[in-house]
């Protein structure tokens, strides 16, 4: 099946028309299933037909969802967002049809023999229908449908508010002391002042290296208010609706409902997992914090120790890194231009996985920054992916892998290849320098491209069994597995080259980088665990309780102080800008849970990291 790129140039009117086409396709597919007499039901005309009924609508919805997140034109983004909302609402309206449950029950009664792949598809569809409330009485079923429709709307608005959020500080040239010239050259200007935004390439270097403590405090405070109070109120409504759905379905909390289809199975299991991690990390994290307090005291010539404030962790952590390991992160960046890292990384993946990635010349995508590649296994095309690497106004602000088309087998036996977009926000090139990456950004790139390969190479027969179809608490395993390659000598030699001289990264610098790998790890993983626990607790509130926005904000401030010994400002509303709460609800723990499996898997690769036999 050839790659369709027509959707990239759709106008607002065309987007609206294709939303109609998506719904019409879904309607036709469901009607075909409903028309089958009960005594003639088979896997092919019922289960497989239900799965195929989603294909066209899913492709259109995923294409539009990407436009929402990456298109440079706000008119197109807004039109695509309205269309996605309409498709979701229309799909809910069509799927909450009792005839669907009746058709499934009639098929179940036939007791058809299936292979393991088809049996899993049937079991998953039946499970999902039960979670949609089909086993409930009519009144509760109708209420669950209403809640689901409204929940989808609010989740979309929650993510929109984060993507559209813009804030910044203005600083003088003097307030940029401590930052490299290439960073300063890349900042936007406001007259004689410089604009430091909340975009990753602005925010993180500033928090690590700006000597001006007050400017860091101002920027960090704005970041803690990302999304705004209205979005915090929206999240409270979202959590309330999730809890109401869980109650209708007989669960003790939304956390239990969400975890029931994951490896963890219950919210209690997740909490126990996180509490165990927190207990083990806390002593080491406190020792790290004391190290930061001591270097602050020494550097500032203080008579006694002073606490580390919320806007100082990154700064003093970076100062300690330079002192303890004699490593200059800006020097490391000089060897890690995005172009060199990409070329080397793609080579590593190709070698280990036995595939080829071929650039598609002159492909017109949604922005000039985006590049298209073809994935091949010999002469056989197995999929496509696009790379969109730099921030811009209105674009999704983090790093994420967006499925556009998920690979699958069609009803006629043909195969549709996957198409995946990797969206990142790495520094833009300046007039004098290319895009240069910190090593943690290199890790991010390896991580996200692991998702791309998982989706393209998983080879599922059915769309819902594609790479992203695994339980949420496993989905981060392949991505975190491939992070490990970014630390190997052989890989660092491939992905590094000084952007001016062309010299490889010196062995001495590689050794320093590797020696510093676990610097401040206890605090990093403690923060991850606390975020995950916060997510679980938000989604484990009493089912009948009113979810108050201020309570959600205070809960996080209290947990940061209790577990991390960090006192946040009274107006901090971190969850309002936490995009994971749109689609990783009661699931943020999955990063830590999956990491256990990733490190175990990497132990097989560790002796020979580039061994293609192991990769295959």
Précis, in short:
The chain is an alpha+beta fold and 616 residues long. 57% of the residues lie in helices and 8% in strands.
Structure explained in plain terms:
- The chain is an alpha+beta fold and 616 residues long.
- It contains 26 helices and 10 strands.
- The strands form 3 sheets. Strands 4-5-6-10-7 form a 5-stranded mixed beta sheet. The chain has a 3-stranded antiparallel beta sheet with strand order 1-3-2, covered by helices on one side.
- A hairpin with a 2-residue loop joins strand 2 and strand 3.
- Helix 1 (12-34) packs antiparallel against helix 2 (43-53), helix 3 (55-70) packs antiparallel against helix 4 and helix 22 packs antiparallel against helix 23.
- The longest helix is centred in the middle third of the chain and has 34 residues, at 267-300.
- The mean pLDDT is 96.
List keywords for this structure.
616 residues, alpha+beta, 3-stranded antiparallel sheet, 10 strands, 57% helix, 8% strand
Topology:
Elements: H1 12-34, H2 43-53, H3 55-70, H4 74-95, H5 98-110, H6 116-131, H7 138-164, E1 168-171, H8 181-185, E2 188-190, E3 193-197, H9 200-209, H10 213-223, H11 228-248, H12 254-259, H13 267-300, H14 313-325, H15 329-333, H16 338-353, E4 356-359, E5 371-377, E6 380-388, E7 400-405, E8 408-409, E9 415-416, E10 418-423, H17 439-457, H18 472-475, H19 477-483, H20 489-495, H21 507-515, H22 521-538, H23 549-564, H24 580-583, H25 590-605, H26 612-615
Helix pairs in contact: 1-2, 1-3, 1-4, 3-4, 4-7, 7-11, 9-14, 11-23, 13-14, 13-22, 17-19, 19-25, 22-23
